Amino acid sequence: MRVFAQALDLKDDPALIAEYIALHQAVWPEVTDALRHIGIRGMRIFRGGTRLYMMIEADDDFDPRRYQEYAQLPRTDAWDTLMRQFQTPTPFAQPGEWWTPLEEIFDLASFPQRA
Description:
Elements (H helix, E strand, L loop, with lengths): L1 E9 L3 H11 L4 H9 L2 E9 L2 E8 L15 H11 L2 E2 L11 E2 L14
Antiparallel strand pairs: 1-3, 1-4, 1-5, 2-3
């Protein structure tokens, strides 16, 4: 299993943020099916203010550049289009990036446990 992390910002509007959260508490089943279909086994999104942090657990052969393949169907494309109304790339995003990949710099599991 591979783990990836990405960041994105929400537009700084409390009503939009509340709507975004509500939509994610009732994600369309076509979206979750499509994410699983492309090899994503787990996904969590955390929020701090307007910053979103997404952690993805995927099959070993998953390529994060394939992420947008989930939006190939009309219903999943509609979800992606809807979500982009609430979002904006982070200030540190590269040109053309939406969700910005984050570099892993620490993993507790890589350090032995001491007695």
